[in-house]
Amino acid sequence: MYRLHQFVSSHFNEKARWALDYKGLEHQRINYLPGPHRRAMVKLSGQPATPVLQTGDNVIAGSAAIIDHLEQQHPAPALYPEDLSLRRQALDLAEHWDKVTGPAVRTAAFSVFVDEPGYLAMTFSSGKAVLKRIGYRLMIPLVLPVIRNANGVTPENVERSLRLTEQALDQVAEQARTTGYLVGDQFSVADLTAASLLAPIASVKHPDMRRQEPQPDKLRVLLQRWSNHDAITWVNRMYDLHRQQPGRN
Ligand SMILES: N[C@@H](CCC(=O)N[C@@H](CS)C(=O)NCC(=O)O)C(=O)O
Predict the structure, then answer these.
(1) Which among 5, 14, 50 is the best mutation to test ligand 1's pocket, defined by most ligand atoms within 8 Å of the CB?
(2) How far apart are CA 9 and CA 13, in angstroms?
(3) What is the CATH number of domain 2-73?
C-alpha cells in the first residue's frame, strides 16, 4: 500500500496524485498543513517539501522521483514514451516545468493568497477538524512574511513569474497544436506535468484541484487573465481525457 504525504492544495502534490491515479494504484493520503508540516516531513524524508511517497521502508521525495519510481514498478499504463528520443524529450520538458514554470505559477497564485489570508487558510486546511482550521486561520497573519518569502512574493519576482507563466502557456498552445500532446502523439509525463502545474490557474473541476468557494475577486481577476488561452483549454482537456478517477480527499 502506498502512502502519499501531501498538501491537499498544491500543484506538485497534484502531479503525484495524478500519476498514482493514472496507474490505478490504491493509496492512502496523509494531509499536512503547510508550515506545521516541516518537522514531520524532515523526519520522514530528510527534506521539508511535499509530496513524499512511502512504500514499506522506501521513502521517495519529489514528484519527479515519485513518477520515476511508479513507472519502474508499474510500467503500464506508461507515462514515459517508449521511443527513447521522445522519452528524453518528455523528461527534459517535465524537468524544465518542475524547475521553472511550477515555481512561477505558484508565485503568481501566492501573490493573491498573501492578500487573502482567510482564503489561503481555507484552501490549505480543507478537510481538517474545525479547531485545527480555526487555529490555522489565526496563525496565517502571523506568518505572512514567511509565506511571502517561501513563495517568492516580491514585486520583481511576481512580475517575472507572470511573464514566465504567460510564456509557458504560449509554448503549450504551440507544442500541443499538432497532436494534442506536448511530445509525440500520446499522453506522457510531459503532459501530466504541464497540466498539473498549470491546474492552479486553469479552474479545473476535478475534486482534487477544484478551488474553494467563494473565490476572492483578486483571484478571479488573475484567473480571468488567461481563461481564454488555448493552453488553459488544453489543461482542461487533459483533465477530461486522462484524469478521470475521483479523488480520495
Ligand atoms: N520539485 C519538487 C517541488 C516540491 C514543492 O515545491 N513542494 C511544495 C508544495 S507545492 C512544498 O512542500 N513546500 C513546503 C516546503 O518546502 O517546506 C517536486 O517536484 O516535488
Answers:
(1) 50
(2) 8
(3) 3.40.30.10
Nearest CA, atom 2, ligand 1: 62
Summarised one tens digit per residue, pLDDT across range 150-185 is 999 999 999 999 999 999 999 999 999 999 999 999
CATH 3.30.70 fits 84-242, yes or no: no
- The pLDDT of residue 246: 58
Average pLDDT estimate for 43-63: 97
Using DSSP, state whether 29 is helix, strand or coil.
strand
Q: In this structure, which residue's CA is closest to atom 6 in ligand 1?
A: 49
CA 151–ligand 1 middle distance (angstroms): 10
How do the domains of the chain map onto residue ranges? Answer: 2-73, 84-242
Q: What are the distances in angstroms from CA 210 to CA 8, 53, 143?
A: 11, 23, 25
- CA dihedral (36, 42, 48, 50) positive or negative: negative
Q: Can you tell me the distance from the alpha carbon of 50 to that of 41, in angstroms, rounded to the nearest whole number?
A: 8
Total-model pTM: 0.97
Helices (H), the chain: 11-22, 38-45, 63-73, 84-96, 102-113, 117-125, 130-139, 144-150, 155-175, 189-198, 217-224, 230-242
Residues with CB under 6 A from ligand 1: 7, 10, 12, 34, 38, 48-51, 62-64, 98
* Per-residue pLDDT reduced to its tens digit, 182-234: 999 999 999 999 999 999 999 999 999 999 999 999 999 999 999 999 999 99
